[in-house]
């Protein structure tokens, strides 16, 4: 019984003022109250147990729901990532030209932003050309919404060199670097000396961070204005894995373009060969020169002027076949001695040294002297004296060289083309010399024939004269013999006896 109810019951039973009947009634009421209290306590205890059980179950349910919520969020996030990766795959498979790599960089940047990666500066790819010490950089700048393609040297800065060395170690390489706000002014100043895009947001950025993953001769990178978290770096790594598909597509496209370009070049070279082999006279060299110039221009070379120099002796005497200043047609031939001008002498020295090719970068006084010399030998040019720079690209053959003049620097492919055409033109010049020899022989044979005919005619005249003289002599001899015979007969007649005896 409840302690307090037991005290009340004891008090009732000991009371002197209550009758037995009252004690019995009150005691029963107290006992009934105790039972009800016990029942209430039992119910309360059971309720508390139910509450505790419910709370435990509810807590477990909330935890499960939270875990499920997190799982659903993770699943949705993974789905978002896979959707983003699929977009990159789709762009990669739709690539048709190398420049489409820019779209790959753009879509990666935009999808990373959607996935929560903030303060993206750019996403870029670097395709390395070790022979030149450069990499072709395809970039998309997120805040500028700008795509850029540049060929960048990696040998002129220690950070570039470290980056390239790490990437060129092979697939799986990783490179990252951090530049603080205090370091950025020097970096911006360096970039202004190169051909890269100048990002104006760097002037107020708190830092610059680069992250690069290597796939061998190509790398995928991202730069940001704040450092990436470990999860964000791992996320970018997944895009690197998908980017490999884009790179394989890029290689296939590059290979197809290179094959098509090579076929185009071979077709152009074959036209020069065909023109060479069809030459019947040495004065057709100018026509073959026109064919050569046209093929070079059709291959995309945009010269200021094309020319062929044929050396006539070992003293520098030469004959020039040149185009006009847009390379469209061949002017007449010009003759000069290559020792008469310092720029020409450089060309001549390169030939004497048996170089394959040569670049002459003319500026200042050298350029002005060059134009004055052209004027002296009556080579026409337009606005030459206003030019500040003129680059002469020379490719040599056995008896001269092919040259191209341009105010702008030319890619290596242009020099390679000139060298290949110079090699083919060497066949042209060999054919030219063969024709000159054949023509000289033919001319000599013709002169010999004329002399033979003249000698024969002279001999025939002499023979005729001899025959006439012979006839005259015979006739004279006959007349003399007849006279002698007549005189003899007359003598004999005068002496009939002798005549009869002789008869």
Describe this structure in words.
It is a single chain. With about 500 residues, this protein is of the alpha+beta class. It contains eleven helices and twelve strands. The strands form two sheets. A six-stranded antiparallel sheet has the order 3-2-1-6-5-4, with helices on both faces. Strand 7 and strand 8 form a beta hairpin. The longest helix has about 80 residues, at about 410-495. The chain is rod-shaped, with a radius of gyration of 54 Å.
| Biggest β-sheet description | 6 strands, antiparallel
Helix and strand sequence: HHHEEEHEHEEHHEEEHEHEEHH
Strand portion, in percent? 15-25%
Number of strands: 12
User: What is the helix content?
Assistant: 55-70%
Question: Helical stretch count?
Answer: 11
Q: For the CA atoms, what is the radius of gyration?
A: 54 Å
Shape: rod-shaped
Strand order in space, largest sheet:
3-2-1-6-5-4
Q: Please, what is the average pLDDT? A: 81
* Sheet/helix structural class: alpha+beta
What is the secondary structure topology, with strand pairs?
Elements: H1 3-14, H2 20-93, H3 101-114, E1 120-129, E2 134-141, E3 146-153, H4 158-167, E4 174-180, H5 184-191, E5 207-214, E6 218-224, H6 230-277, H7 285-298, E7 305-311, E8 317-323, E9 330-337, H8 342-352, E10 357-363, H9 364-376, E11 389-397, E12 400-406, H10 412-494, H11 496-502
Antiparallel strand pairs: 1-2, 1-6, 2-3, 4-5, 5-6, 7-8, 7-12, 8-9, 10-11, 11-12
Helix pairs in contact: 1-2, 2-3, 2-6, 3-6, 6-7, 6-10, 7-10, 10-11
């Amino acid at each position: 019984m409840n302690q307090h109810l037991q005290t009340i019951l004891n008090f009732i039973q000991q009371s002197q003022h209550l009758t037995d009947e009252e004690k019995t009634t009150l005691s029963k009421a107290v006992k009934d109250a105790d039972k009800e209290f016990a029942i209430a306590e039992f119910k309360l205890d059971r309720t508390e147990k139910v509450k505790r059980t419910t709370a435990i179950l509810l807590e477990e349910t909330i935890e499960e729901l939270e875990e499920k919520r997190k799982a659903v969020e993770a699943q949705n996030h993974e789905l978002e990532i896979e959707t983003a990766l699929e977009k990159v795959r789709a762009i990669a498979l739709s690539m048709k030209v190398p420049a489409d790599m820019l779209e790959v960089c753009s879509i990666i940047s935009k999808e990373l932003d959607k996935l929560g990666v903030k303060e993206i500066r750019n996403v870029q790819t670097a395709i390395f050309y070790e022979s030149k010490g450069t990499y072709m950089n395809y970039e998309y700048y997120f805040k500028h919404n700008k795509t850029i393609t540049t060929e960048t040297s990696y040998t002129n800065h220690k950070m570039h060199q470290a980056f390239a060395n790490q990437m060129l170690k092979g697939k799986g390489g990783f490179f990252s670097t951090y530049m603080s706000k205090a370091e950025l002014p020097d970096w911006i100043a360096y970039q202004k000396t190169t051909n890269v895009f100048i990002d104006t947001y760097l002037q107020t950025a708190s830092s610059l961070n680069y992250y690069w993953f290597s796939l061998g001769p190509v790398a995928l990178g991202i730069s940001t204005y704040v450092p990436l978290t470990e999860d964000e770096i791992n996320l970018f790594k997944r895009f690197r894995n998908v980017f490999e598909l884009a790179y394989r597509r890029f290689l296939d496209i590059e290979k197809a373009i290179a094959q098509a370009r090579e076929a185009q070049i071979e077709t152009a070279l074959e036209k020069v060969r065909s023109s060479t082999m069809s030459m019947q006279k040495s004065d057709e060299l100018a026509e073959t020169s026109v064919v050569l110039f046209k093929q070079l221009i059709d291959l995309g070379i945009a010269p200021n002027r094309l020319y062929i120099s044929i050396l006539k002796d070992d003293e520098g005497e030469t004959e020039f076949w040149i185009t006009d200043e847009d390379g469209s047609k061949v002017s007449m031939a010009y003759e000069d001695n290559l020792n008469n001008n310092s720029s020409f002498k450089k060309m001549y020295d390169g030939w004497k040294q048996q170089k394959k090719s040569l670049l002459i970068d003319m500026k200042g006084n050298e350029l002005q002297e060059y134009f004055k010399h052209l004027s002296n030998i009556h080579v026409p040019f337009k606005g030459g004296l206003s030019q500040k720079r003129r680059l002469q690209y020379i490719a040599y053959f056995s008896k001269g060289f092919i040259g191209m003049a341009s105010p702008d620097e030319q890619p290596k492919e242009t020099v390679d083309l000139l060298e290949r055409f110079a090699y083919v033109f060497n066949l042209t010049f060999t054919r030219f010399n063969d024709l000159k020899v054949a023509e000289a022989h033919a001319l000599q044979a013709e002169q010999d024939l004329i002399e033979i005919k003249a000698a024969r005619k002279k001999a025939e005249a002499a023979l005729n004269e001899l025959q006439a003289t012979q006839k005259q002599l015979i006739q004279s001899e006959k007349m003399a013999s007849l006279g002698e015979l007549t005189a003899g007969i007359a003598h004999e007649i005068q002496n009939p006896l002798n005549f009869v005896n002789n008869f």
